[in-house]
Design goal:
alpha+beta, six-stranded antiparallel beta barrel
Length: 229
Amino acid sequence: MTAAPAAPQSPATDTYEPTERTVPSRSRDRAHYDHATVHAILDEGYLCHLGFVRDGAPVVLPTLYGRVGQALYIHGSTGSRPLLAAGKADPGLPVCVTVTHLDGLVLAKSAFHHSMNYRSVVVHGTAYEVTDEAERRTALDALVDQVVAGRAADSRPADAKELAATAVIRLDLDEVSAKIRTGGPNDDAADLDLPFWSGVVPVARTYGTPVPAADLAPGIAVPDYLTAL
């Protein structure tokens, strides 16, 4: 894979420019392009879906990611499928990355109008392998902190052997859009008197009580950044 070019400078505007690929064909009023909305959705997530074409067929893989400014970082083993596929691409690997949060199940009077409340981000672009050691370490710290903020500083960083076995790719946030649905069901007027329950079932993420590892040394307390969750 072609090494990543220098990370882009912060854009002069606070809005991503819509493109043919980022303007939805339906419900265009749900689309958002401002940095604040896009970044908030990305920063709240853990899991993205990385899509690319390998040997002429589409591949979509769930994986961790981290955001640093205007870049998304994704890591994997140097022998993983996307990295092997990316190694054949020059320059870089065309990809599509998605992140979605489910906020509610929308139950309508009719089957047709059932829906979901959600917040999602779609990023199109070219992913590049990160070869600069300082940027790689920054990316790996971001990936750990994406899971639990503050964790990177509270764990051993990767050693040389681990770094050699880890590949990192960067996707610059350039061609980006968010899409959000909120509110209740959009029932047809003719269906409003039907004797079926309608409304929204909220969906929320929760955290359980941290469970210590079986070999955790006595006296090591749960860190504050975990109890804060």
